[in-house]
Amino acid sequence: MRRAATALSVFLAVAAAVALYTISYDTRRLAVRVHVLEKTAERSLAEISAAKAELSHLSRPERIEPLARAMGLHPPSPQQFVDEARLPRRVSRAQ
Amino acid sequence: MMARSAVTAPTPVPESRTLGVLMCAIAAFAVLSGQLVWLALKGQTMPRLSMSEPIARTFARPDIVDRNGRLIATDLEAPSLYADPAIIQDVDEVAEKLGTLFPDLDQLQVRLLLADKSRRFVWLRRGLSPRVAQRVHELGLPGLSFRREQKRSYPLGRLAGHVLGAVNVDNRGLSGIEKFIDETVGVEAVLGAKPSSKLPIQLSLDIGVQFGLEVELAAAVQRYTAAGAAGIIMDASNGEIVAAASLPDFDPAMPTQGLEPARLDKNQASAFELGSIVKLMTIAQALDSGSATPATVIDVRAPLWIGRHQIRDLHPAGRPLSVRDIFVQSSNVGAARLALSAGSDRQRTFLTRIGILKQGSTESGPVAAPNQPKHWGEVETATISFGHGLAISPIRFTAAAASLLNGGLLVEPTVLRATVAPRPTGVRVVSAETSTALTDLMRRNVTLPTGTGRRAEVAGYEIGGKTGTAEIAVDGKYRGDLVISSFLAAFPTHQPRYIMLVLLDRPQPSPDSGAQITAGTNAAPTAGRIIARIGPLLASPTSNQATVFDANPDAK
User: Across the A/B interface, how many CB contacts are shorter than 8 Å?
Assistant: First the structure.
């Protein structure tokens, strides 16, 4: 009986130790993973903001304007606008 | 414990148990040794750097975007070069080699910094471009290293520089909106290149409009050989500044430029005698108090004498003029008579009410205080009625004009979008009728052949305006050849949505202005060009709708 109890407690002690080590290692591994993910996220954010800045830089009016003019575009003139009420109605035309 | 049990109960220990315990112990030691070997093989790849916070701290700033969400300013990661003097072997070599890459490096100071072996961290150059950082790396000097930091960058370059302001080397705001961010929204102290977690700051500026304004102003500076120019476009309903430019401009990436007097923000940091555009206020006061109507006739035939001072018109009408004509033909005598009939106190009260005499600031910095006369007597009342003797910052003037023309509700100038800043006070400064009458006068001044603002007309946008040519006082005397020429515009006049002020600093006679320097010949056409350019971005044209779509076959 005593032997069984001893064996059981030794077994429990070893099991607990193993479990403890496993958890502790897992925690450390996870902590490393969290750190890596955090760094990745930070990197990605930095890259996104760099990409945004680049987009803004490339689409700045100073650069777009000559390109647009070279393509034959120009600011719309008042003649190109028309009041909605003055547009002919499709329905009446179909009749 | 075993020894004790051996004394009290000398039972023999079975051999198998001893063996078992021994095996367990060996196994445990084997695991430990294995772990040691594994750790030794894995090695330490990441060198750790520890430094005290005050040295390496920078600030992460929120982005700045325009009213349509387009990016104006952001933080970018940039390597910064530092040295660890304790590791540096040859100070002279380091200083000389760095000198080849950075010619402006202060050699003596670098040598002094690096010679102090007790220090472990010295900044050498911050916010490098990746290419330069690579070159430093290639020098292969021990003791030099990089840290990644946040560095403010302005992808649109100099655009809206005066509004934006600048930051210092630690990424803290020094002026403009950047300073406002530090003071209100707050910046986050970070180690390394950690982006800000704060939401972007949305300005009321529209990048497209801002660009149009800056380009046209720059063209006007060239065309009329002016020393500078300024322009503000304001949403009349809530005081939001849609565009604000001051030339010579200011590059937010070069903060030291802000110290040059010529680059001072003319819109906000300077006050000018604005000339005849102030007649709008004089007539507003007369109309709103009920002492005159647009049809009231005033005798302006003779110059007006106040003591020793004479007030006369540039082009005397030679006949009595109605208030309407006083505005359109810009009669100084008429404006002075209107102001004098109300008196100095009422004039000052009215100007205070519409915010012209107010001090204070906008989000982009303090507004220059109005330069008021020490003694506000009859002469001053008369000259102030047509814009002399009282210097006003253009931004205050524009806000006051917006308050008069938007239906009569006071607005405060702001460069933030409505979602961030509080909005109109709802304080009525003039009646809606007065406001409509003023708008009508503004429109007449552009459409009538006698109007001084006729060269601002652009078909389709219903522009109303007032010209102002103010002589500049040099050593206490007004010089006829040096003027601030300005144009106040409102459009569309059936319900003014935008108020614009254009100001040219000391324009010269040019072929384009018919060899004149009056505002009608330079500021007015400039205003017209600006509106023709930015109009489509702000509002669809209202009138002059051509009969393009009337070609309906059924209607024939």
Answer: 88
